[in-house]
Hints:
With about 350 residues, the chain is of the alpha+beta class.
Amino acid sequence: MKYYEPRLISLTNAIVVTAIYIILFIIGALIISPDVLHHLYPMVYLVLSASLLFIISFLVFRFTLERFIYSKIRLIYKSIHSIKTKKGEVKTPRIDTNFLDVVSNEVEQWQQEKSIEIKQLRQLEQYRREFIGNVSHELKTPLFNIQGYVLTLLDGGLEDATINKEYLKRTEKSIERLIRIVEDLDEIAQLESGQMQLNITRFDILALTREVIELLEMKARKKKIRLVCPMQEKPLFVEGDQEKIRQVLTNLLENSIRYGNEKGRTKISFFDMDEHILTEITDNGIGIEPEELPRVFERFYRAPRGRASFSKGKGLGLAIVKHIMEAHGQTANARSATGVGTTFGFTLKKV
Ligand SMILES: Nc1ncnc2c1ncn2[C@@H]1O[C@H](COP(=O)(O)OP(=O)(O)OP(=O)(O)O)[C@@H](O)[C@H]1O
Ligand SMILES: [Mg+2]
């Protein structure tokens, strides 16, 4: 029992009132007749009346006290309840023996819920601020570049045959980059809001990987990087959204080329793990520092080594990979050793 409970307060008050009554009764009796205490009837009367007084005063105190407290907290309770429950479900607390406990438990629970909510809102606000900052930063570079090229062309460059075509080409490249950033952002926004509908089918991951390799062969050749895929003929059937997995493979293979060393190699391996197929893409490129590794899947994150050796990255590719794999209920992971190479892997359900 808590010391401030109405029951305990009423009990103390009833004891005090009864004790005062008994004392006054005894003093009064002694004044009227000193030997009255030796008689049975006055004593029986005293015991009975004191008991009755005790019970009545206890009940009156308790009722008044609870009414008073109840009237004070009812409004608070009601407003908390109307926030907690849906419209029309507002419940008024009943005055029963433990209504204060009920109310205090509910308020405590409500307070915990609210503090979690506030924490989440703060994180969301922080994320929103960072996101807007990152987006505007990413958009700024190509926009300023375009502005620079156009101004040069307007300032007479248009007539200069040595630069006009070149500057238009550069403008086109910057526009292309802007479009890619916006497309990636749109993709991330859709994946994060859960609006992305996956078109799950059964497909051969080996065949899909070969298709992606074919498309990236030119890029790899420019850096003299060999893309090595297992020779096996047997298909590896998995379940997933083929187009989204194509994007995952493209992003990972592009990274292995982008952050790979000249004359390097990227090896693609498949591992049969009972219910899943694990696909791994291993390069022998610049690698990622151990402290950077957990962050590479964050949107807009670019490790300092990567940034230095390849400035055009947007830092969105791996965030998209992570979201796509999570939407599949699967995971993507990475391990790396600086100067040795990096391995990215993801699993898909075998069918
Ligand atoms: N294979 C790799 N080897 C070394 N570093 C890598 C590798 N893959 C990714 N990284 C690091 O992780 C960072 C994030 O990669 P991510 O693919 O998300 O972005 P990006 O390649 O910079 O740009 P984009 O959005 O165009 O893909 C890169 O900037 C790079 O620093
Ligand atoms: Mg990338």
